[in-house]
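Q: What structure does this chain adopt?
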Amino acid sequence: MENQIDGSSTQEENTNSESNGINPASGAVGRVHGRPMGLDVRCMKRSHAVPFLKEVRGAGSQLRMSRSVSAATVLTVTFVDLLTALAPVRKLDLHMPLRESNAMEGLSCSFENLKSISLHTDFCMLSTILSTICLLRNAPNLEELFFQIWHDNLQQVEVGVNILSEQWTDGLLGNLKSVSMDLATCQPNEMHFIEFVLSKARRLQKFDVTVNEYCPKSNEELLVEILKYRRASPQAKVFFSRMEFI
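A:
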């Protein structure tokens, strides 16, 4: 069952491969804190190859990185170093590292070409939420954002819209048109993030939410809650569907 909520009843804001990018066969980098770390690099020129990778192979518009030179070499490279080396990409598929601290801290490069991000993460920890916002802040031309949510962890702390708004900077979500959130359980942090995006993305056209079987809220409860959210884009429509298992 799918429900659609358009923006007519809300206020407009007045102002403002392997799935792993590094071949796991190398044994050097492929998992971060028990998670697979994937980087799907598309439309990346050979001249921008990550320096510690032995080769970059191209097939049409997609380039695949594989075979690190050595484990010792790879382990000296931070997660931020890796992302910085990928600054020219236009499409990124990323498994967010789960850490107690912000994995994106120190990320200063701007992903000017980046149009689409597929992000595998959760909203259980403040650190992963801040990492997500940091990445989005550095992608000023981002148009498509897809979340696939992990559910291995329990929500540790509630991160409200006021905390998310403190991370706001001009240009954040400025060109975002489409968001999809897959396997959502609609825990408070997920709902706060949905509210945050709706209130800030002025060009947003649609927000698709697929609710998994563990969501305790009914469709009616979700409708009531989402209808209260203010939207920066009067064209923004929210679609949500519930996964059904036979």
